[in-house]
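so my prof wants the structure for this chain in the tokens format not the other one, which i didnt know existed until like an hour ago. anyway here's the sequence
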Amino acid sequence: MSTKKYWKSLAHLESKEAFENDAKNEFAEKLPVDEFLNQEGIDTVTTSRRDFLKFLGFSVTAVSLAACEAPVTRSIPYVVKPEEVTPGVPNYYASAYFDGFDYCDVLVKTREGRPIFIEGNKQSPVTKGGLNARVAASVLSLYDSTRLQSPLKNGEETDWATIDNEVSQKIKGIAERGGNIRIVTNSVISPSTKKLIEEFSAKMNAIAAEAGNPKEEGESVVKHIEYNPVSFSAISEANGISFGVPHLPDYHFDKAKTIVGIDADFLGNFPNSIQIASDYAETRNPDSENFSKHYQFEAAMTLTGSNADVRGAVKPSDFGKVAVMLYNAVASKLGAEKIASAKLSDDDNNVIEKIQKAANDLVSNKGRSLVVCGTNDVNTQLIVNAINNLLGNYGNTIDLSTPVYIKNGNDGLMNGLYNELKAGAVDGIIFWGVNPVYSTPAAWNFAEAVKKAKLSVAISSKLDETAEVCQYVCPENHILESWGDAQVKKGYYALTQPAIKNVFNTRQGQTNLLKWMEAEDSDYYNYIRNYWKENIFPSQSATASFNQFWNKSLHDGFNVMPKSEDGATELTFNADINAAAQKINAQKSEGLELFVYSKTTIGEGGQTRNPWLQETADPITKVTWDNYITMNPKDMEGMNTNIQQQKPANVAKVSVNGYELELPVIAVPGQKIGTVGIALGYGQKTAVVEGTPIGKNAYPFVTFKDGVFNYYATGASLEKTDKTYPIACTQTHHTMMGRKI
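here's what i got, hopefully its the right format
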């Protein structure tokens, strides 16, 4: 008979008397029903869930007006319907969703011209019908009445003609002087947008040359910087060092019999996690012959860690050492040369033993195994690459010949931009869909650096922290109002099509560039179509007519190009892993360690204002609406803080590297002792309830170290305050013990 005990909360685990008593009631606290019902006028209150959304600024009124206009032309429904809209009968549009963090092939359900639901496209060979909460909830952000509704100049409302005239003239003037213009975006996976930025840059270089101020060879008036607030830059950089391929690989979890994750929440917050989750699920059926075994080493209890067969809790400063120890264990079994040995700062849950077991299974499934790491540290990623190379995983469970383009951010280039801004060397800067004033390290003071630019433009859907310090603000379309294309991986192309006309006076960022470079045709739809005709259509031979090719791609939402017959290039591993191991071993753990992470619901913070996501309970803590300090219960007991989720949480102050936050403390069993965690994406000025931001901003804890952004710090201090905070938690609600079901 199994001795495992299943529990819903810490109180349940410890069989606390209070839990047993509360479990007999529907609600843990006595509800003041009589007092509520006796209030004067209560019988006239008609509050509904729609009123709740209105309170937060979400309304369908403006969208209804847009839906009443003529339907979007050029779009093709996934299921072809009559031209007229049939009341009560929905239309579906295949489209591609990408916000810089999540990619998904979707079907958008519309009713009476209004998008109302998003689901996964089951025909997609990439995401295979899967999606996550962030993608599903994105339809609600279309209805957010706090979206920017018209252009702004110096904080005042203006019109597009003024914006286009003044911005284009200032850009042209900078180019004529041979100045410097920088465009900062999130990862760009749109091939047509990349081409457009290249043409914009070429136009500015031509203007500089005509004015007698040409740039030196190798230099350009315009430079494009891709910036990811939650970066995986180290993976691409390590692949460039190891194999000369500076991209993310295409992981094949469906082919892996043994999986080892090191600080990699690949089921929730990892590049291409929707595809990975689908592939991973194929190997987790106990009745399948290809059932995989999963080992996970991490500091926080993640969604991925909770699904692992074997899990080891380690401090963030020890992630690299876990990789070194795993390499040596695999190398000893394969007869390869070991590298400099590593030692964990402490091992209170048999991590060393678990590493040995993982190595045994990896070697037993050589070529059918996979080691994946999410740590943004180049040296650690080099060791992980070496492990996979020893095991023969490249070309089997890891495909570098089909790079994934989701996370293209380069941390070094972003640091270079900051230094240029600080030195006053940037004449004009355009921020497009990013908010670095909010998400860069506290030490940078990015807002003051931006103010040194002579021209600053923000293309944004919200008046966020970065838009607020820019001279011109250009409101951008919602993705459901936009045309676009995507190349999530080599050979795979997808289209984004609008499901509704623009609700507000907004426009796409691509249209802005076309206007400002004075292109003959500023219609981005025509630009995409021409790009596909000239660059993608010739790569296939299945369809002779471009119109048929375009219409089929738009109908299906994607098109897969035939693979090259040249075959995969043979990879040669070239990294100096001994040097990498020495740098890893030099890292020290000093006292309490703080790490910041992406939450399964909020991600990097692009939809923090979305009430559907705020109301969705975190899959580990079951807490809604807030971010908080996560700690192991044993650490909390040492601070004499409350670990029972039925009571208000104690508030503590955490400090490191000159920045501090006060947040409630939540117990998370399984978290590494001696660590604290805080979720990113909260504390934004555009995500408020009754004038108060939701949660606190943890991005200032991020540092720039060794050429990349670093998401943990040692030597943190934690101090309990005399404050408490009521946490909304679904953990013990609806307990059915002692009651008829």
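also thought this was worth mentioning. The CA atoms of residues 93 and 641 lie 51 Å apart.
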